[in-house]
Amino acid sequence: MQQELLVNCHNLIKIYKQADLEVVALQGLDLEVARGEMIAIVGASGSGKSTLLNILGGLDEPSAGKSLVAGYDLARLNDEKRTRYRNLMIGHIWQQSGRNLLPDLTAADNINLPQMFNSVSRARYRKRTRELLEIVGLSSMAQKRPEQLSGGEQQRVAIAVALANQPTLLLADEPTGELDSVTSQEIIAFLRQINRAFGTTIILVTHDVAVASVVDRTIAIRDGRTSTETIRRQLPQNQPNNPGSAIIGLPAETHQETIYIDRVGLLQLPAYAMEQVPLRGRTEVCIMDDHLELWPAGLLSDLMGSVAQGSSAVIGLSARTHRETILIDRVGRLQLPKEAIERIPFAGRAEVRVSNYHVDLWPLSIANAGVSLERKEPLHE
Ligand SMILES: Nc1ncnc2c1ncn2[C@@H]1O[C@H](COP(=O)(O)OP(=O)(O)OP(=O)(O)O)[C@@H](O)[C@H]1O
């Protein structure tokens, strides 16, 4: 990742202890977020999304692992530093309006409050509140209490509250969970505008898969670990996606997934790859010069005829290509052969490309060459 990292978590672990019970909520999670990015975190209930957000927001302490945000080491904050971190660096938006806004205060006073806690002068916070109400399109609602506002308007005020102290990182935990789909889209689009206009880094937890088309990356968490990453890309027109492979069905703007590979080569293929290529049970791993190809076991021999007869120019494999058959389970989990991780420089992650008959894994450095991520320079206020 070329941009400055704002969030850098590695092997993050969170264990909750209750009486004699231990719940491992995060079990070795890796996450990197560049300054100015907007990413979504998705995952089943209980997968650890809120735990991660609470740690990043300084509301909870990690049990082990690296967790750095804007130079703050979240595992080593004393009370004073933690309060400063929460007040100055972080904006939080929750699903429930009651958690975002105080019901007895007007919209304007709700936005004033966090600034007053930060000892901002009255003149400055009133000016900032007026500006924020304008930004969220609610200037005329300044004196309304939350119950006098619609759900979408309440979340707009919540966004203004979260932005009050100009946070570096905005954390939104299911901010549209209680809204209808049209209002949800408006709020997500609005968060995107904030991200673009002010360069505020945003991490959004959501169940809404449509959000993937709005954010820069979507990271899926499974059982307290990062499992897949979907990057929204702009592929240049007329550029071959992958020389030497027939990638199917990728429009100019497409989603490609990056998966994580651990040190011993364990990985899980994304669901769509498993749906398109019948790899279940066993797969043949072909180690090419710069990437790996995973073929359904037996199919290659059928296509190439006898290996002893040489090579197939059509499918680009020579008889000398190193091949090995490995096991793969129903949900796409497998362990790459040692030789594969030694020969291909994955450095923990691979881009998945699905072809007609096979699934390819490319190291990011090679996969990214010539295919630029659609990113913008953050604007500062
Ligand atoms: N304070 C706590 N004490 C004990 N266990 C907890 C605590 N908070 C979370 N957990 C447990 O940690 C695991 C991860 O929970 P978390 O709330 O982070 O998941 P989630 O992905 O946000 O779920 P949801 O989508 O339902 O909000 C769960 O097993 C949960 O029961």
TrEMBL record:
One of its GO terms (molecular function) is ATP binding. This is ABC transporter ATP-binding protein. Signal peptide: none annotated. Keywords: ATP-binding, Nucleotide-binding, Transport. InterPro entries: AAA+_ATPase, ABC_transporter-like_ATP-bd, ABC_transporter-like_CS, ABC_transpr_LolD-like, MacB-like_ATP-bd, P-loop_NTPase. Residues 7-248 form the ABC transporter domain. It comes from the Bacteria. One of its GO terms (cellular component) is membrane protein complex. Pfam families: ABC_tran. It comes from Tengunoibacter tsumagoiensis. The keyword Isomerase does not apply. The lineage of its organism: Bacteria, Bacillati, Chloroflexota, Ktedonobacteria, Ktedonobacterales. PANTHER family: ABC TRANSPORTER RELATED, IMPORT ATP-BINDING PROTEIN. The keyword Ribonucleoprotein does not apply.
